[in-house]
Every structure is written in C-alpha cells, then in structure tokens.
Automatic annotation (TrEMBL):
This is Lantibiotic immunity ABC transporter MutE/EpiE family permease subunit. The keyword Transcription regulation does not apply. The chain crosses the membrane at residues 20-41, 47-65, 99-118, 124-141, 153-172, 213-231. InterPro entries: Lanti_perm_SpaE/MutE/EpiE-like (IPR021205).
C-alpha cells in the first residue's frame, strides 16, 4: 500500500493536480475575503464556504484528475500488469487522494491564520485549525467513493455526483433526518466551532449550541467500508477481465 502511495505521488509530479492542491484553497480564501471583508467575519465565512461547497467539489475534482491522468497515460495497464496485490494497490491510491486533501487543508489553515491577523475574527486559531482538519476527516469517506466512481466512469461524472450531493445536502441539512445524508456532515460539523450558520449568518446565542463531533466517527467508519468495497471491486473487476 505504501509502495502504491509512493508510485501515485510520483505520477502527479508536474501535473495540474499538484498546482491545484496549492492554488485552490488560495483562490477560495481570496475570493471569500473580498466578498465578506466588510462583514467582519472572514475566517468563519471561508470555513463555512469550504465545508458546504468547495472542499467536497475539490476532492471530486482532484480524484477525477488523478484518474484521467492514469487513463490517458497507461489506461491502468501498468497497475494491472504489476505483481502487486491489486487490493492493496487500490488502498494506496485511496491513501494518496486522502493525503492530497490533507495538504490542501493545511494550506487553507495557514492562509486563514494569516488573514486572521489582518481581519477581525471572533474565533480562536485553535478553533480554526480544529474546524479545517476536522472537515478533512469528515469528508474523507468521499475519497474511496470518487476513486471507485472515476475508475468506472470518468472525472465529469464524479464531479457531477459531488455537485448533486452537495446541493441535496444544503437543501435538507435543516431537517433532523437530513443527517442520514453524509454530505450534510461536512456542512454541520464546523457550526459549533466557527459560530456561524450554514446560510452564513452568525449565531448570536451560542450557549446551548451542541457540537457535531459524531460526524468524524461516522465518516471514518464509512471511509473504511467504502475503501474495502472499492478495493475489492477493483480486484474483482480485473479477475472478470482475465
């Protein structure tokens, strides 16, 4: 699995994916800063936008680009012809996508911390770090899902599914039963940390505000399940093609 991670990391060298990992959070932070600078809660707004829309779409886009690069270069022939266990190799590809999301999250942490020194913010640096890294964990289940979908279809289908999931999540997050939909986990997780509603309005009374840390545990369980199913699907797909 670690060998596959090393191989996949080398494949993305000097590709659009590497550039996107650094540029995407920068663009999100700058655009949100310009839009919400006058409101006085820039850091919270960046995290809110990141959790509701941009991070799930980013994961789908990066995973889709990884898959497109593989299909355009070897059509998975190099992987399929290798002596490595395909189940473990697929887990390595999932780990690679997970680390890409972590790097992007860390870049955003740095950007928001820098902006917090030049703008007024009502949340602590520790809350900012916890919110963004927590969002990485909460969205981790999407990596094996999109790795699986992209391999069977293409990047455009993957991004479309992510966009539909995000849209449905925004529409149903206010309902109690909406928590069943995993896309709502990313939207509701940071509320207690950044003290801002999903619609972007600050929360006046936070005394009775409950946290949603349970979403991390639920997301990790789903991540393990989808990783196993995705890796097993890849191994079985190859067997059928033999």
């Amino acid at each position: 699995m670690l060998k596959a991670l090393s191989i996949e990391t080398l494949k993305t060298k000097r590709t659009l994916v590497r550039q996107l990992i650094w540029l995407f959070p920068f663009l999100v932070a700058i655009v949100t800063f310009l839009l919400f600078a006058a409101a006085g809660y820039v850091a919270q707004s960046i995290i809110n936008q990141w959790s509701c829309i941009w991070f799930p779409l980013f994961i789908a886009l990066v995973i889709g680009l990884n898959d497109r690069h593989e299909k355009n270069s070897t059509e998975y022939k190099m992987i399929l012809s290798s002596p490595d266990d395909l189940f473990s190799y697929e887990l390595g590809r999932i780990l690679h996508g997970s680390l890409q999301g972590l790097i992007t999250s860390l870049v955003l942490v740095i950007l928001i911390c820098v902006l917090s020194f030049v703008t007024v913010t009502s949340v602590s640096v520790s809350s900012i770090v916890l919110a963004i890294l927590g969002l990485w964990l909460v969205n981790l289940w999407q990596v094996p899902l999109y790795t699986w979908i992209s391999r069977l279809t293409n990047m455009y289908v993957t991004v479309l599914i992510a966009a539909i999931g995000v849209f449905i999540g925004i529409e149903i997050n206010e309902y109690a039963w909406g928590k069943i939909w995993p896309f709502t986990w990313s939207e509701i997780f940071p509320i207690s940390l950044i003290k801002i509603k999903i619609n972007g309005l600050p929360i006046a009374n936070t005394s009775g505000l409950s946290n949603n840390y349970w979403t991390i545990g639920a997301a990790l369980v789903l991540f393990v399940i989808l990783s196993y199913l995705g890796a097993r699907s890849f191994r079985n797909q190859v067997k059928k093609n033999d």
